[in-house]
Structures are given as structure tokens and as C-alpha cells.
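Exam revision sheet. Question 4 asks you to relate a sequence to its structure. Input first:
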Amino acid sequence: MQALPQPWPRQFRSLLSFVAASYGAAGLGSLFTSRSLGSWYRGLRKPRWTPPDWLFGPVWTVLYGMIAISAWLVRRAVRASPGHERVGRAALMGWWLQLLLNVLWSAVFFGRRSLSGGLAVIASLWAAIAGTALLAARARPLAGLLLLPYLAWTAFAAALNYRIWQLN
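Answer key, C-alpha cells:
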């Protein structure tokens, strides 16, 4: 027997909590990033295929929204169907882990100005996103799909991190 759906105000509060966590992580990461953009990052040698600085903000804004909605959909699937509880809890643990690693990458790459450390963290981040996407898809397919652009952007960022490391 399926559980009754949550009332809309409760669902909305749940969505807002994931949005707040996602954009809170974005805010923390930007604290590390903003301190090093002008003084350090712009002075690094970068490949020609590096996106312009203005592109990162809009891309991350959309991605953090998708990351939040993905977690919310998993949470709803867990509450609506007890059969999704184990996989849903694992997906949500992965979700928190990838969010932590996302902030950690900014702290290491920009905050510590460590290109090699950034590579190590972004490899772990990519793996955490991939695992979270797989688990989320088992709870709710759309939740997993919403993480694929984030996974692709992180793969691109990892390639960029690697090339910048090589050039510097």
C-alpha cells in the first residue's frame, strides 16, 4: 500500500530546504573562488577552450537548481513508496557527499590554489555525482537524469583543471 502524498506546503518546504542547501554550497564555494579570481586564476596559463568567466555563473545557477530538484524528487519517492527507502536514503547520502565535495573543490583549487589537489577532489566529486545519479535514478528516473548535465559539466571542469595543471 502506498503512503498518501504529502500536503503541498510540506512538499514546498522540503523543496526549499534542498534549494537552500544547494545554493548555500554555491555561496560557500564562491567565497573561495572570488578571493582568487583576479589575483591568481586570471594569471594562470589556460587552454584556448577555457570558457569565458561570465559563463560560469549562469551555468552553475542552473545546475544547482537541477541538483536541488533531483534531491527533492528522491525525497518524495522515498516518502511515497516504502520500497524506495533504502536506495533513496543512499541517494540522499550521496547527494550530501557530492555537495560537500563540490565546496571542497573550490576550497582546494581556488582557496588553497592547488591545481593538483583540485584534480584529486574533482575526480572524487565526479565519482560521487555518478554514483548519486545512478542511485537517484533507481528511486525516481527523472532525479537521476537531472544530475547528468552536472556530471557532464564536472567532467569538463576536470579536463580543464587537468590542462591548467599541465600548463602551469
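Marking note for examiners. The two ends are 59 Å apart (CA to CA).
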